[in-house]
Amino acid sequence: MSAIDATCGIDVGTQGVRASLVDAEGRTLGSGAAPITSDHRDGRRHEQDPEQWWTALCDAVRQALDVAGEVHVTAIAIDATSGTVLVEHADGSPAGPALMYDDTRAQGFADRAQRAGESLWSSLGYRIQPAWALAKVLWLRGEDVLGAGDRVVHQSDHLVRRLVGSVVPTDTSHALKTGVDLRTAAWPADVFAELGIPLELLPGVALPTTVAGVVSRSAASEAGLTTGAVVRLGMTDGCAAQIAAGALEIGHWSSALGTTLVVKGSTDELVLDPSGAVYCHRHPDGGWLPGGASSTGAGALRDAFTHGEDLGQLTEQAAGLGVIPGATYPLIGRGERFPFVAADAVGFVGGHADSDAARFAALCQGIAYVERLSYDVLASLGADTTGPVSFTGGPTANEWWNQLRCDLLGRPVRVPREPHPSTGMAMLAAAEPGRLTETVASMVGIGRSYSPDADRGGQLRQGYAELVTALVERGWLGSQAASYALAEAGGVPR
């Protein structure tokens, strides 16, 4: 029997790497996953070892190939965390640990970057935030850690280079938080000159789906891939999940829940947010992909339950508790970036979560509250959020949580047949430039659908309104977004 043609999508997340092999109809032929254990947090700092990314990537791809059997990999694409950068030597080796997407050590440089490019950033609808890669580039320049021939590259750039064995451009998606001009797909030379950033310090820029090269003999040997397979430039993890959700057509939306929560949709026009919480990626086919990435997410469950608790059992117990009263904001660490920007935000648990099951339920509700607030913030800025919503990410395996989130959103929800960012990247790998939406539409299948329970939705909106009020009282959420959210929730909390 001849080998089946397949494309390979690779998702590099906070906790590990996942690889998926799919056929021309979007069906998964094989998948694999490998952990990243080098994660190190210290206050505002968050680092990982780039060498372990590559090791995990190779392990995950080999697992997927073992499961798939006889396949011929024709193309590959990678997504990675948005805003993660590292210093890379001229030979492509990492100069040290990577600065992760939520590392805010460069907080003092964000304002400087914002002032230098105020006009451009405003026209594109975002503000430079402390965790963004452009602030980190300035911090790295100030630390005098850059040697001759060194460059600052994104997580995805580094791994694509490892695959093809030569210097590669970055894509407009991963480069967004480094200050790329999305309209021209180029670095803003005048802004960078004012900031003292030489253009040669960064990779060139191209659109996602652009061919970066082909898999080298060395990479093929390490990862088990086909020598000469095409490697296309990918998009960030949030965009990869949006692709997997099939939310590329105008008016479609997706919620990707993993360690963090990413909400994204597709619009004809830019959605402009003066606060910088919402920003738009450039749609590779034309148009815009507005949304944002919260620092909250399912990582809060991992952080809260560290003693081997059975989350399946906790889910069964939580389902019998009903709605936990009170406002819970499940933020790990300090600082929020979406659906509002607050560098000093910290998490809190309200109500009476007096057991593991109640605490689990309260955290799941809190994440759902942040998700609902994300859509309300987008709508308050003029985005039409009434279209189809899809859920993706590992937590979609939890039926109770899916239904709870659906109830609070108050609209039908669907879960794609293959709800993983790695699947989204495999679909992108199959797409020729300018044909991503068309290609994805032919490959996405719907696995499950949910309809909202109005009664439980009403109960959940009470806690949601309490959370919105608590965020306003702490000075983290603006009045426009809060007023809209409270009106949609049915008024102020009792």
UniProtKB/TrEMBL annotation:
Keywords linked to the UniProt accession: Kinase, Transferase
What's a BP term from Gene Ontology annotated to this protein? carbohydrate metabolic process
GO terms for MF: kinase activity
Q: Name one Pfam family in it.
A: FGGY_N
Could you tell me which residue ranges the Carbohydrate kinase FGGY N-terminal domain spans?
8-243
Region described as Disordered: spans on this chain: 29-48
Q: Which residues form the Carbohydrate kinase FGGY C-terminal domain?
A: 285-431
Composition bias (Basic and acidic residues) maps to 38-48
Per the record, the similarity remark reads: Belongs to the FGGY kinase family.
PANTHER family from the UniProt entry: SUGAR KINASE
Query: What protein does this entry describe?
Result: Sugar (Pentulose or hexulose) kinase
